[in-house]
Amino acid sequence: MQGGREGSWKYARSTKTVSTLTGWLNHMTSNLKYLAPNSRPQMSFQPIQGKILQQGKRGISRVLVSAKIKRKRIVTWGIRVDKMSSSLVTFTDKDTYQNIFDPERYLHTYYNPKSGIFVVDGYLDFALKKLHEYFTTRGVKGKTLIDIGQGPTMYQNLSACEAFDEIIGADYTDRNREYYERSLRNEPGTFDWSNLIQKVCDLEGKGTSVEEKKQKLKNTVKKTLKCDVLKSNPLEPLVLPKVDCVISLGCLGYACSDLDTYRNVLKNLSSLLKIGGNIIIAEVLNCNSYLSGGKRFFSLVLTEEFMRSAITEMGFEIVDLEVSYRKYDKDQFCKYDSSLLVLARKVRDV
Question: How far apart are CA 266 and CA 254, in angstroms?
Answer without folding.
Answer: 14
